[in-house]
Amino acid sequence: MVRQPLPEAFCEAMRSTLGEVEAERLFAALDDCPPTSVRRNPHKLAENAEGRSVAWSRYGTYLDARPQFTLDPHFAGGAYYVQEAGSQFVDHILSALHIDGGRVLDMCAAPGGKTTIYSTAVGRKGLVVANEYVRNRAVVLADNVRKWGIGNVVVTNNDPSHLATFKGWFDVVAVDAPCSGEGMFRKDEGARSEWSAESVKMCAVRQMSILDEAWQALRGGGVLIYSTCTFNRTENEGIVAQMAEHFGDAIVEAETIPTDERWGIECGRVGAVQTFRFYPHRTESEGFFVAVARKASDCDCGRVTPKPRKRVMADAAKADVAELSRWVDEPSEMRFAMVGDTLYGYAAERYDEVRALAESLTVIYSGVAMGQIFKHRLKPDWALSQYVGLRSDAVARVEVSREDALDYLRRHDIAVAQFAEGLNLVSYEGTPLGFLKRIGARANNMYPLALRITNL
């Protein structure tokens, strides 16, 4: 395949930064085939996929070849996420920070790769607010959150400035900033044609603005994670230097994040901020940059919650709570609410926080969608089939063949005899795919129409 040439201004900048020999190695790597890596959902798969482990990711694996993921039922059931290896380094950062049960804000979250890392790291009693400004990207983010199934994420569709009004709320604020995308030159031909020196400058202005808003939402003693998928110093160390100057003594050193020199990561510091660079000719990854800083504890002025603008959530009726409780494995640890015409479940200790978010922001998904109750019985939402806290005996669970699994995901007819009368959970090799209702000799496929596999 003849590839579009790298932008000349980019090449000149890399030669200036890396030197002629090192830059040529980078350019050669950018014209090579990218590695394929995935990250498993530990709540759904007990072991990593076959292949070589991603050294800096607890759940990451390099695959020998890139399969057709849309035809893998495990992928449809949220058992793993297809994610570039460098991006998985945030899992290594979080493992050093020990944030189980904490609160994380993902300021620029779509399509959801890092959001699902944060969701796993904080656990079912933690809280992740995943924000995406662009509406259609926020919808994709919400779908990926449903599939991941931990039930601890609030997906919002707001300008980052709206999140800044939740002052001092979060233990970790992550900014995976919109950038010029130089690190995607290998896997995305469009990134080469869209790049310009002017876009680098424009991105840098926006990045600093988002960081200023992120800092307000971070509690005293909390950790800021800033990342890009680009190489230039303007959007990376340059932004970190601006941040260090802007916030001054409010930035202190976070715990040192250990690395192994065999990983090929370029580690550095800008003042109190630790930085990490991934170059594809040094590491088995795309281009990636990440910086970690801690907000001084004496900057903690307490949490400020905006005044509510609307009422969105209503506590579920007692009779409904009884029905919903039989579907989950820890009902005493949950609260249920009606949002629109659908009932949702939340970790009880996060319920008031989710409600405060919903009353001030544009929330398009939160917790786990349980479904609707008719004649005292729950008609479950597809999201409940993906929830890792679904009670094992709540509904008949049927393991199906790969052929039947794909037919189910296409919403085609499948053999009815294998299912019990009434509601069933369709599962493939231990991965739940969704619900099916058998009524005599026919089956009602309840897999969401919008998610069905359309290729033959």
Q: What would your notes on this structure say?
A:
The structure is a single chain. This protein has 456 residues and is an alpha+beta fold. The protein has two domains: 8-299, Vaccinia Virus protein VP39 (Rossmann fold); 395-456, Nuclear Transport Factor 2, Chain: A. Helices cover 29% and strands 26% of the residues. The chain has helices at 8-18, 20-30, 73-76, 89-97, 113-122, 135-148, 160-163, 189-194, 197-217, 237-247, 318-325, 351-360, 382-386, 402-409, and strands at 36-40, 52-53, 60-63, 80-82, 103-106, 127-131, 153-156, 170-176, 218-228, 251-252, 266-270, 273-278, 288-295, 313-315, 334-339, 342-347, 363-366, 368-374, 377-380, 396-399, 422-428, 431-439, 442-445. The strands form four sheets. Strands 5, 6, 7, 8, 9, 10, 11, 12, 13 and 17 form a ten-stranded mixed β-sheet that branches. A hairpin with a 6-residue loop joins strand 2 (52-53) and strand 3. Helix 1 crosses helix 2 and helix 4 runs parallel beside helix 5. The two termini are 26 Å apart.
